[in-house]
Design a protein that fits this description.
The protein has 438 residues and is an alpha/beta fold. It is built from 16 helices and 14 strands. It has helices spanning 37-41, 47-52, 73-91, 100-103, 110-131, 158-177, 200-221, 245-254, 267-272, 277-286, 313-325, 348-374, 377-385, 392-399, 404-411, 424-437; strands spanning 11-12, 22-23, 31-32, 35-36, 43-46, 95-99, 134-139, 182-186, 191-192, 226-230, 239-240, 261-266, 290-294, 335-337. The strands form four sheets. An eight-stranded parallel barrel has the order 5-6-7-8-10-12-13-14, surrounded by four helices. A two-stranded parallel sheet has the order 1-2. A two-stranded antiparallel ribbon has the order 3-4. α5 (110-131) packs parallel to α6 and α10 (277-286) packs parallel to α11. The longest helix has 27 residues, at 348-374. The radius of gyration is 24 Å and the shape is globular. 41% of the residues are buried. The model has no long low-confidence stretch (mean pLDDT 97).
Length: 438
């Protein structure tokens, strides 16, 4: 049975193509800076948006028309697996990602829930074997069920904490079973609404204990996936503990977790934190913890996590500019489309169109970013801007030879201070030229 109208696998036709079911920029075999686009980008489909999302919002019920929704229970779970692998084949995408509660329904007990999960994981494994598709990362949903009203690893209820540990234990086992290359910890409800009733110190200590236990158990069972934390500043709690890349880095350093974790950076989460996507990527890259990305974008006119498919070429170019400079590129991570079609795009084929648009946007970003790097456009601008630190008193500062006394002596010479223009508008115009002409 086809859930996407028997659409043939999407092919690359070039930027002049008007075929909506063709790639205009994403050519998986095109070699850029020594690697193919497929290797650079490692695209993944997000199970929760593509197969469980209904198109509902706070003001209305779901609008999505999905043929698999005629099923229920475990039959629905299996139909979604079938739809997942059909879409992966249509898009020629190698990876997918899921939360545990995306793939199988919860039962009345933890034992029944785990039984459901085991059955669907076995079914996914069969499909992976026959198709060659791979699991980029899995994670545990510890935010939807009412039991997590006060959080999971930062809850005030020790019974909930124990349940969360059991849930992650099972998720790690399933990650190993499916050969997941990464495992993601997303804060969910790990935050607070008010400090009036919050023991922040205990909650953060408990979160660190939880993550250390996860590291220990993964070693115990031989699960060697890359562990990732995904920063987010707000939603669903008012203040999340993993607010942004810098906050998360501070937490990891304090609790001696930095050797075990990298970051999964999402574009829309960056904007919610008051940053650009490229800012969060650079903070992560400079600190050696850029592990993977969630590819989406937010609406600048709306103040919440809209999870739109990425189509802003300026953003994808600057994102790929950071990733290309990261040691090993995206490494074991990937470009996961944590994005959903708009509520008005309710037909199943719209999911295909949306992924094509997102894949093309990142492919174009990759092309332009690579050319910028090859031509050393921004590097030359930056080198010139900081030239004063390459000789004289500037070189003394950088080398560590300078002190307040030597710097005062230099300043007392009263040499004229001459600043240079940053030429920001000109630089943006140059980037625009590359976007248009490459």
């Amino acid at each position: 049975m086809s859930y996407f109208g028997n659409v043939a696998p999407i092919k690359f036709e070039g930027k002049q193509s008007t075929n909506p079911l063709a790639f205009k920029f994403y050519n998986p075999n095109e070699v850029i800076l020594g690697k193919t686009m497929r290797e650079h980008l490692r695209f993944a489909v997000a199970y929760w948006h593509a197969f469980t999302g209904s198109g509902s919002d706070p003001f209305g019920s779901g609008t999505a028309i999905r043929d698999w929704d005629k099923f229920s229970g475990m039959d629905l779970a299996k139909a979604r697996v079938d739809a997942c692998f059909e879409l992966l084949n249509i898009l020629d995408v190698d990876y997918f990602c899921f939360h545990d509660r995306d793939i199988a329904p919860e039962g009345d007990t933890l034992q029944e829930t785990n039984k459901n999960l085991d059955e669907i994981v076995a079914y996914i494994k069969e499909n992976m074997k026959s198709s060659g598709k791979k699991l980029l990362w899995n994670t545990a949903n510890m935010f939807t069920n009412p039991r997590f009203v006060h959080g999971a690893a930062t809850t005030n209820n020790a019974e909930v904490y124990a349940y969360a540990a059991a849930q992650v234990k099972k998720a790690l086992e399933h990650g190993k079973e499916l050969g997941s290359e990464n495992y993601v910890f997303w804060g969910g409800r790990e935050g607070y609404e008010t400090l009036l009733n919050t023991d922040m110190g205990l909650e953060l200590d408990n979160l660190a204990r939880f993550l250390h236990m996860a590291v220990d158990y993964a070693k115990e069972i031989g699960f060697d996936a890359q562990f990732l934390i995904e920063p987010k500043p707000k939603e669903p709690t008012k203040h999340q503990y993993d607010f942004d890349a810098a906050t998360t880095l501070s937490f990891l350093q304090k609790y001696n977790l930095l050797p075990h974790f990298k970051l999964n950076i999402e574009a829309n989460h960056a904007t919610l934190a008051g940053h650009t996507f490229e800012h969060e990527l650079r903070v992560s890259r400079l600190n050696g913890v850029l592990g993977s990305i969630d590819a989406n974008q937010g609406d600048m006119l709306l103040g919440w996590d809209t999870d739109e498919f990425p189509t802003d070429l300026y953003s994808t170019t600057l994102a790929m500019y950071e990733i290309l400079q990261n040691e090993g590129g995206i490494g074991r991570g990937g470009v996961n489309f944590d994005a959903k079609v708009r509520r008005t795009s309710f037909e199943a084929i719209d999911v295909v169109y949306a992924h094509i648009a997102g894949m093309d946007a990142f492919a174009r970003g990759l092309q332009v970013a690579a050319k910028l790097l090859e031509d050393r456009v921004l590097e030359n601008i930056i080198d010139d801007r900081y030239a004063s630190f390459k000789s004289g008193i500037g070189a003394d500062i950088v080398s560590g030879k300078a002190s307040f006394k030597t710097l005062e002596a230099y300043a007392l010479q009263n040499n004229p201070i001459v600043n240079k223009s940053g030429r920001l508008e000109n630089i943006k115009g140059i980037v625009n030229q590359y976007l248009i002409n490459v």
